[in-house]
Write a structure and sequence with these properties.
Elements lengths: L2 H5 L3 H24 L6 H27 L1
Helix pairs in contact: 2-3
């Protein structure tokens, strides 16, 4: 997922994406705790995707506040 793809989405779609990523992060942490996680790099990717989504949401909030 790239930042340009995320910027094309609406704020509601980004919130849904963030929720899905947080659920995936929880599941990955649970798999790691039980020892069944095979792709440990996915944890890092999900964490960075969450940061990207939050950054884009903040950018949209700032631009909306500046326009108002």
């Amino acid at each position: 997922m790239t930042a340009t793809d995320l910027r094309e989405k609406s704020a509601e779609e980004l919130r849904d994406q963030l929720l899905a990523l947080k659920k995936e992060s929880f599941n990955l942490r649970f798999q790691q705790a039980t020892g069944s996680l095979t792709n440990t790099a996915r944890m890092r990717a999900v964490r960075r995707d969450v940061a990207r989504v939050r950054t884009i949401l903040n950018e949209k909030a700032v631009s909306a506040a500046a326009e108002a």
